[in-house]
């Protein structure tokens, strides 16, 4: 099989709930649009597809019969469901911005559901590794005061605190970029954009050499 060349960049945003990920993704998208830079936004979960819709039922507490292991695998299944489309975008020079990725799946399953860390890694092994991950860092004691907090399954301060700690496992990954999400919106936007400009100037990657690795 021909090894695809990924001329587009994979840019992921991670963090606990209500840290401003969606806002910064929108601001970045607006900048790229203004520069006529082709890109797509992919959200996990996407509550409009079949798998994401089922995940939504669980997160909004409308579906309670699914085990925590099944939920973890559902999140992973949706990422694999989008794998071919993401590779298609990247191999055609279209940058992809991810609103959460496999790191969220692992952090939430270990932090909120107390699943075994090593077990949670396996389902996502082989996904495309991001060129950069922006980790929106904000302690849960601040996020709990944000609008609409508490409407979903994991939106409790004690759970978010455990997830916040779980995310620290990824802090030494070379593409992991910590953003202080508790600072001025424009400062955050500019910091992210400067990092993205640098990433966009990098050489293309081969797909075979771009498989996600959760450990340094």
User: What percent of residues are in strands?
Assistant: 5-15%
- According to CATH, the fold-level topology is Rossmann fold
Structural class: alpha/beta
Task: Give the spatial strand order of the biggest sheet.
Answer: 3-4-2-5-6
What does this structure look like?
By secondary structure, this protein is α/β, with parallel strands linked by helices. The chain has a single domain, classed as Rossmann fold (3-Layer(aba) Sandwich). The chain has helices at residues 21-34, 50-59, 68-81, 83-91, 102-111, 117-121, 140-143, 157-167, 185-200, and strands at 5-6, 10-14, 39-43, 95-99, 132-137, 176-180, 205-206. The strands form two sheets. A five-stranded parallel β-sheet has the order 3-4-2-5-6, sandwiched between helices. A two-stranded antiparallel sheet has the order 1-7. Helix 1 (21-34) crosses helix 9, helix 3 runs antiparallel to helix 5 and helix 5 (102-111) crosses helix 8 (157-167). The two termini are 28 Å apart. The mean pLDDT is 93.
């Amino acid at each position: 099989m021909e090894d695809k060349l990924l001329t587009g960049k994979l840019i992921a945003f991670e963090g606990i709930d209500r840290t401003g990920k969606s806002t910064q993704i929108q601001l970045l998208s607006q900048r790229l649009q203004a520069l006529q830079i082709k890109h797509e936004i992919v959200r996990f979960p996407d509550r409009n597809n079949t798998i994401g819709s089922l995940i939504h039922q669980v997160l909004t507490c409308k579906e309670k019969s699914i085990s925590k292991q099944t939920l973890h695998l559902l999140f992973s299944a949706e990422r694999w469901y989008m794998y071919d489309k993401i590779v298609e975008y990247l191999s055609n020079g279209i940058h992809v911005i991810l609103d959460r990725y496999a790191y969220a799946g692992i952090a939430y399953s270990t932090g909120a559901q107390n699943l075994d860390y090593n077990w949670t890694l396996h389902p996502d092994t082989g996904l495309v590794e991001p060129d950069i991950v922006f980790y929106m860092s904000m302690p849960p004691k601040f996020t709990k005061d944000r609008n609409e907090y508490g409407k979903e399954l994991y939106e409790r301060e004690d759970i978010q605190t455990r997830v916040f700690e779980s995310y620290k496992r990824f802090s030494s990954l070379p593409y992991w970029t910590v953003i202080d999400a508790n600072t001025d919106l424009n400062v955050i936007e500019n910091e992210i954009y400067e990092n993205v400009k640098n990433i966009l100037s990098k050489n293309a990657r081969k797909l075979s050499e771009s498989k996600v690795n959760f450990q340094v």
